[in-house]
# Entry
Amino acid sequence: MPSHRVPQGMDAAPTVGELTPPDRTLMGPGPSDVHPRVLKAMSTPLVGHLDPSFIEIMDEVQNLLRYTFRTDNKWTIPVSGTGSAAMEAAIGNVVEPGDTMLVPTNGYFGDRMASMAERAGGEVVTVDAPWGQPLDPAAVEAAFDEHSPDVFGFVHAETSTGVLQPSVPELTDIAHANDALVIADSVTSLGGVELRVDEWGIDVAYSGPQKCLSCPPGASPLTLNDDAMDKVLSRESEARSWYLDISLLEGYWGEERAYHHTAPITNVYALREALRLVAEEGIEERWDRHLRVAGALKAGVEGMGLEMNAPDDFWLPSLNTVRVPDGVDDGAVIQYLLDEYDLEIASGLGALEGDIWRIGCMGHSARRQNVSYLLAALGNALGEQGAAIDVDAGLAAMSERF
# Structure
């Protein structure tokens, strides 16, 4: 008889100490610092996912999401999962076998759109633009003429390059003139930079809670208009994901409130409180705050002698990409900030790996004291590597901008 070895640890209960994660200042591409009110909301008592009190909370969250998305869409919900779950719910329901989806090539998350569309059974075609540049409406129109796609996806705020897509209504007009639905990735824009789903003609938009909403991941915003829902409900084949099938989720988040799955109750509490903060501040005032605070960060970085990666015309306030100076080890700077300052920023992704730092200025992290702290710490980290920077000039430029 073969011997059965007991895996190490099964014969005795492991000894694990109290949870003590470091208290970081989060200035990377997400998550951002969570507001104390959101953390407090997460410590409130749990109720059932069909409890009458929770159903009232569901209604409130949906209304707050509509306000934040700037939409009247009935089909506006938090998807149980991270932003990638909302992304897959959007693409995996709207794209079905036989459909063609047009996606951009100008960033990491356009590539992810393509992967999800292919897994949904769609054919993927691309509209090209260099990393660090937005889509050109003329190129989008040419791609429609060549490929006649059924669905067009674009990234409103590309987290990998720090580029904000301008001219969104022009893009959606092109798509609608060709009878295509539009899916917008607003993961790094919702609640931080101007986004108007209805006015701009966006059919489907998804986001994540951990960026400009400053909420822990776990319940991710998604909105679909009637045209998109008509497509979802008239599919010839079922969506490949049962868990993310919007035609089934509609039964829980719609008027029926029928059981589908156990919602992440505490994450919905958190999202509700984060969205309350958005409403209290005012969505347009919140956009202005991000622009003001990130503008001071940008002025400080450039005042130190560093360069931004994104051109001024396409600069994304919520996610600032900064060029790594020649001779500087980007990873060493990131580690130094963690070790010495409990401060998080991130390196580049994909084609920009090693060339940039990604510095978030989102939600509760978009505050003057965080910007001052970041500039001083980054200056010291660069000084350790002998980089020619002027921290005092950077701080002066930041103060003048404020």
The first strand starts at residue 25 and ends at 26.
